[in-house]
Amino acid sequence: MRLLFLALTSLLLASAPSAEAGDKIVRDFRYVVDTAPALQLSNPAALSLWAGKISSVELEGTKGNGPLVPLEGSPDDFSIKAGTESFYRMSDKIAFKGKLFWRNFQGKDMGGPVLMNPDMHPVNFYESVDTTTGVKKRENYGLAGSVALNLGSKWALGFGLEYECGDQNKIKDPRFTNVLMDLRLTAGVAFKPSEDVFLGLSLLYRDAIEQMRGGIYGTTDKQYYVLTDKGGFIGTSAALEGDNNYVSAQNLRPMDNSYYGASLQALLWKCFSNEFSYSIRKGYYGKKAESSPLFFNYSGTLAGYKGLLQLPAGNDLHRVAVELGYERLDNTENTFRYVTPEGGSTIVDYISSNNILNRQDISASLDYRWYINAAGRRPGATVGAKAGYVSRNQLTSLYPVWRKHNYTSINATLFGQKVFTGGVMSYVVDADLYAATGFGLDKQDGVYVSGASSNLKSFDNYLGRYFEYKTKPRAGAGLCFTVARLFQGGFEPYITVSDRFEYLLSEPQFLAGRVRNLACITIGCNF
Q1: How far apart are CA 245 and CA 459, in angstroms?
Q2: Whole-number Å distance between alpha carbons of 26 and 17
Q3: CA-to-CA distance for 338 and 267, rounded, in angstroms?
Q4: Tell me, what's the pLDDT at 6?
């Protein structure tokens, strides 16, 4: 069916009126953005270096099958995504960037994590058994906009806003409901002492809030339980009922993450961009109210570097991108009691706070691309390689018990692209080979006081699935075919069909299977 659809689309594009000589050259949107060093910087003032106009619109459908998925994934899912993005210089003084997207996701046999992005948070919640899996539906909307203002020939200001909202519902008891709101605000200033030097400073504020609650449809005598993972898949179990436990069955409770950061940028010779960033993270879980408890407070720091170097060689272009990241996160649990003064309402009385989690994450990536014959609408060919490294090291202290947990994941990809051009038609073939592995310590437990008792539980099934997904050796391959056609007026619609397959190289103990396949169809247009 996909091949028939592709053949019919190719025939339709080939039979349309051709673009006449003198029409504007439309370049591939993703290639232009990836090879514009100024657009790799988070400072919105860097848009002041942009000249011209380029836009893209896409509609994408993806079908995923196979049990080789993370804890929050589905072995049988489908998603649709639509979006548009544009860069536009309005005048000598003003340049804009805009982006809109919508995504709808539906996955079967989903349970486990309650939060949408469990790897981000210091505390997580899981369904207590595997027999309550069901369909989850998720919808996300997002918009982003940035503007840069030239203040004379040497100075520029920039302002940016990104906003995403979403909701997720599980269509089977226990019926968890999630609501996400994520806002980013950036402001930057740039100094351009010459054509070859751009120096920038930008500030970031981000507030990401995910609210959730549990629910049960109708009346039932079945009792559901929720596991609270306080780090390293160790914690407590509580019934899903009322409003007094970690997860409420009545009210939405927020998991809030706020970030305050600054970045320094330097773009030299229009081909070498550098950005150093540092942020402070503050967060909490619960409600800041007299009658509702604040269960956890957490804080951390983030630091990072992004670099891009591009070296032309005749009609070719060599591109090297490097990214480094570090995050430290500490979590504190509050102990409290409910107190009802005579003649008054019940309030929360806090007793103490205990540090329960220390976590460090380190990441690194390297991406090299050789664009061959890159003077046309898109490079005639591209070859390259990329590698990634992620590690986590954490200590969970739940007196009288402690747990150490760490892992390291590494991956590498070889990829290539070949473009066949005939008049106004372009045919693009992409292929890649992928491998990943890892190592680490899933858990090491101990006690601070010998012989002390504890009601803490270890969620070994979830821990095993998580650790295997991060560390078990795997290999994969991808193949992609694109047909594009240039029309009069500078429009280039295209259709892309792709497929990606991954396979574990040994039999898993906790994961449900060894394979994963992703098939995708994209219809888009560069203009």
Answers
A1: 18
A2: 16
A3: 56
A4: 39
Q: State the Cα–Cα distance between residues 22 and 432, nearest whole angstrom.
A: 36
Count of alpha carbons within 13 angstroms of residue 259, beta-carbon side:
23
In order of 99, 467, 481, 484, the CA distances from 16 in angstroms are 29, 53, 21, 12
Q: How far apart are CA 40 and CA 30, in angstroms?
A: 12
SS3 313: strand
Q: Using CA atoms, how far apart are residues 169 and 504, in angstroms rounded to an integer?
A: 31
Computed on alpha carbons and rounded to an integer, the radius of gyration of the chain in Å comes to 26
CB 172 within 8 Å of CB 217:
no
What is the three-class DSSP state of 315? coil
CA distance 111 to 104: 18
Question: Do residues 401 and 357 touch, judged by C-beta distance below 8 A?
Answer: no
For residue 245, which of 200, 214, 280, 221 has the smallest C-alpha distance? Answer: 214
Q: Residues for the chain: how many in total?
A: 527
**Which tens digits make up the pLDDT trace of 210-257?**
999 998 887 677 899 999 999 999 999 999 988 889 999 989 999 999
- Residue 174: domain span: 2-526
Indicate the average pLDDT of the chain.
91
79 sits in which H/E element: strand 76-89
Convert the pLDDT of each residue in 196-207 to its tens digit. Answer: 999 999 999 999
| Cα–Cα distance for residue pair 167/139, rounded to 1 Å | 6
* Residue 479: C-alpha distances to residues 93, 327, 406, 476 (Å): 43, 35, 34, 11
How many domains are there within the chain? 1
Element holding 345 (H helix, E strand) = none
Helices (H) and strands (E) in the chain, counts: 3, 22
**What pTM was computed for the model?**
0.89
- Given phi > 0 = left and psi -120 to 50 = alpha, else beta, which region is 254? beta
State the Cα–Cα distance between residues 320 and 310, nearest whole angstrom: 6
- Print burial letters for 251-284: b (CB count within 10 Å at least 16), e (below 16): eebbbbbbbebebebebeeebbbbbebebebebb
Residue partners of 504: CB distance under 8 A and separation at least 6: 68, 472, 473, 474, 511, 514, 515
* Other residues' Cβ atoms within 10 Å of the Cβ of residue 340: 9
Q: How do residues 54-90 score in pLDDT, each as one tens digit?
A: 999 999 999 999 999 999 999 999 999 999 999 999 8
Is there a contact between 142 and 184 (Cβ–Cβ < 8 Å)?
Answer: no
Residue 235: strand pairing partners? 229, 457
